[in-house]
Amino acid sequence: MKKGCAKILKKLANLAGMKQAFFLLLILITAIAYSQKQPVAVKVSYQKISLGKVADADNPIIIFSDAHKTLVSNKSIFDGKASFPIEQSLVYHIDSSYVISAEWSKGKHIATRDSVSLKKQSFELLPDTKTILGYKCKKARTIINSNTIEIWYTNDLKLKGAPSLLGQELGLVLETNRNGSYIVTATNLEKLKSIPPAILPAIANRPVDMLTYRDVLWRSRFITLPVFKDEIINFSDASKSNDSILRFANGTIALRKIKFPEINTGSQVFVELKEQSNGDAYDRTGSVFLIPEDQQQSFMDGLRDGATTLPEYDNGNGKKYHGILRTNSYSPLLELMRFFTPFGIKQYGHIQLKGKDWHEIVPYRQDVSELTPLFSNKEMWVGVFIGNYDKGGHKVSLDITIHKDEVQYNEDNFVLPLFNTVNVMEMAGQEYATMFNSSKGLEVTFTLEKDVKNVRLRYITTGHGGWENGDEYLPKKNTITLDGNVAFAFVPWRQDCGSYRLFNPASGNFDNGLSSSDYSRSNWCPGTITNPEFIDLGNLKAGTHTLTVTIPQGAPEGNSFSAWNVSGVLLGEE
Q1: What pLDDT does residue 298 have?
Q2: CA 501 – CA 493 distance, rounded (Å)
Q3: Number of helical H runs and strand E runs in the chain
Q4: Which of 125, 272, 343, 504 lies 20 to 30 A from 110 at CA?
Q5: What is the predicted pLDDT for the residue at 468?
């Protein structure tokens, strides 16, 4: 630097004399001194504060900025401790574009580019100022998705950058405040000669569109166990099994064996089913279930050898019900989700009514996390049943998703299926659940080997059958007793069925202006899930217990009869 200045001084002296040279030298030295105060690049660390408390203290947001670009990252990435997906953003200030890149699995990278979004950001520039880390900051405000976000930025360093994509072109953002409850504030600013090239992220050679990028990253955050994809559930003797999917009861049941990973306590598990009519125009009972094989006999034996080979229940009403109750050597089906198909969704969308734009698929999604102790780290048969007599039937897709979480709304580690009266083998001769026309109703005796605390009954109930006087359309009290004492009584009833009219293009329309799908029903609607009731049973001692379910089932009317599909699972802590 000194030699360079001497040469310049000598040249200036030759041209304009010592006086002019001295004056120009002062300008040069001032410029050099000023430039030394302005960093070529900076590294800024940011602390996250949520509701007044420091969040994720060991993993602050870190940015590197120079005159051309800003890298947005976090400490865990540089420490090698980040969990997948590992995501970073690289902003190019010359044209306000950016690249977001991620390693979403070991060795698998994906990236997307955007040259528009940053340019569309708009802010209200306010007169307020404050000092952060010794730098004078100005204030800007914007509203995004009903969130008010205040941004404090400085222009003192002649650099741009921010701890997120928001406000990248305002200046160097040192603090953002969302709704006064979530603050990201700079805690350290280090001046650098340059951004170390080694920290810049690897960017995929072929960037994808933003929607694809977000979808890949979203799906990488949880485990998806695909069960069925566009599987037909119909009634046809032409329905056959293949190497991976077994079909029973003339095609109304589909089964596939699934290996479940070990599921950590607190994780959330969801069943997600999508259904369309493939010919059947009617609302039908559906069930997603598991087949426990922990005892000498299972429901799979009945599927292979016939329903009558399963344990028989006789409550004195003259009929025999097979495979519905737990015994000392048999476990009934574990029902994950009860659902009901709408009237002809997709297939009958051509039926036109003014003001009705029919949906084309019905999604059912339910949290079944409380049941995970039964299937965690096991291989089990997963099945779907839809009762129908149509050759086209229904088309379904089924996934089970597992999400890491720390939500602990229950402490259950004990799961015991007790009963399930859904006649899944309806189209193979299994009797309808009409046992409630007897005062005995349904009675199951079970034995606990150990004391179980905080026991609950996961109870699903729906009434069916009949017309005006059938139990489908009449409120009926369900009473559950344990060891002779009433544990719970309620009337299961749904009054929101009209909310799902757009799922039901083939629903009949009546003279009174109502559609069949509008009518209230015994705990179900066409196109919905029936949620379980969780009934507290207290602490149960080791030994034998008896649980009963009684319902005042309606009498038959001609060829029409009423029935109740109920399933029950004990949950608790051993």
Answers
A1: 97
A2: 18
A3: 6, 32
A4: 272
A5: 72
